Amino acid sequence: MDVSETASISTGIAQRYASAVFDIAKEGKQIKAIEADLDALQGAMSDSDDFRNLIQSPIYTRAEQGDAVAALAKKMKISSTMANTLALMASKRRLFVLPQLIKTLREAIAEDKGEVTAEVTSAKALTKAQSDKLAKTLKASTGKTVTLQTSVDESLIGGLIVKVGSKMIDTSIRAKLNSLQNVMKEVG
């Protein structure tokens, strides 16, 4: 089994859980609560090595993961829908797909709202004016409200890499230099 096969399995598992959670939340008009839960869980994964170890390490038993997730859900005031989902995932040893679940659920909620997320990588942090102008331009091309998820990669030298869904636009100087280098190799 190669890495891409493992990633595909994880994505499939996450999509099934995300679909179920989304349907339950939409039916119960709990989308806002689920969004807050996703923010809390994302923050916990970013801030806590212990939480990341809990969801990724095979050394914890189902019971230990279940007890820990129940305690965390109570302390973080996670909605009952998400708490029950986490408990089910722990009992099935599926907590390792939590990062993909969060991403997939965010995409489903955004799609339902008519929004799309654009991943933007730039050489320097974008100013508020630049972000607003980029969001406006992307909204005009996609026809949906665009939320920017920005990151900085100084190796780009300049320009941007924008990913919206399956489309990617790379206007970075690094990409242009690589392209020029390839053309020079063909000539010489």
Structure, explained:
This protein is globular. It has a four-stranded mixed β-sheet with strand order 2-1-3-4, with helices on both faces. The longest helix is centred in the N-terminal third of the chain and has 25 residues, at 3-27. It has helices at 3-27, 31-47, 49-56, 62-75, 80-91, 98-113, 128-142, 173-187; strands at 115-122, 145-152, 160-164, 167-170. By secondary structure, it is α+β, with helices and mostly antiparallel strands. The model has no long low-confidence stretch (mean pLDDT 91).
Keyphrases for this structure?
188 residues, alpha+beta, four-stranded mixed β-sheet, 13% strand, globular, ATPase_OSCP/d_CS
Task: Output the strand order for the largest sheet.
Answer: 2-1-3-4
The arrangement of helices and strands along the chain is: HHHHHHEHEEEH
Radius of gyration: 20 Å
Largest sheet: 4 strands, mixed
The percent range for helix content is: 55-70%
Distance between the termini: 41 Å
Portion of residues in beta strands equals 5-15%
How many distinct helices?
8
Q: Please give the number of β-strands.
A: 4
> Which stretches are low in confidence, meaning pLDDT under 50 for 5 or more residues running?
none
Helical/strand content category: alpha+beta
Shape: globular
| pLDDT averaged residue by residue | 91
Membrane topology: Peripheral membrane protein
Family: Belongs to the ATPase delta chain family.
Keywords: ATP synthesis, Cell membrane, CF(1), Hydrogen ion transport, Ion transport, Membrane, Transport
Pfam families: OSCP (PF00213)
